Amino acid sequence: MKKKNNNIQKLLPVLLGVVLAILIVTGIFRRCSEDGGSRIVSEFVRPSGDTLSVAIEMSPLSYFLSNDTAQGYDYDMLRDISSRHNVPMVFHPFTRLDDALNGLENGKYDLVAASLPATTALKERFRLTEPVYLDKQVLVQRRDTSTGSPAITSQEQLLKDTLWIAEGSPFITRLQNMSKELGDTIHVISEKDYSPEHLAILTALGEVKQAVVNEEVARRIAKDYPVLDISTPISFNQFQTWAVAPRDSVLADSLDSWLKAFKETPAYTQLRAKYISH
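Above: the chain's sequence. Below: its structure in token form.
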């Protein structure tokens, strides 16, 4: 364990450098207006007036860059809503969910768009929107190099084992409940310096034994890292939502209305076909 933690620390500057590079590239978009007045910023500036401050997760699903073009399921959906309803938005990409949720609580952001399962713990803390899509949590592990099979094929095999998750992840609630259901301990390490995407990549590199990641994100990473197995479910399908501060019921009601209307459009069907596997 000590050796792996040391290796992780060695990789930290590299991964942080990648994130920094991405953020620098996103800075190109600071001066560019987009549909509906939405734009991306690489440093925080609280917008004034009716402009929404949106913290958006940097991941292979929510928001990413492809050939210097910003895209992603949550990002594309919010841009469409911004354009349709003439609601300017400023996007603040993040990798640490805990920071984004804390920023939502203290008024830094109006909305957090990320892979957020509609758990009881999150509902007690924030106002969650109309569901954005369905997803579940899966175990990300390496395949055996000789057999091509995963070491763990059932949740029961995780007893007394160790799992990695990102610090502040809502997955902790499911893992705690799973330990109770199985009647024994599952050790969980919460990594403050890594996103779920980073943990999945570290698993592929053999620096982390196994991690828990949303299936839609895990699918995209597994395409680039065939050594990964993501076939063992950790949870049932859950509604994935966005989070709004409890005090902002007007925004929450508006988002629910906009999301329901958007789901009736051909644009939503095309968006799902592009990003969601089921």
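Residues 36 and 87 are 6 Å apart (CA to CA).
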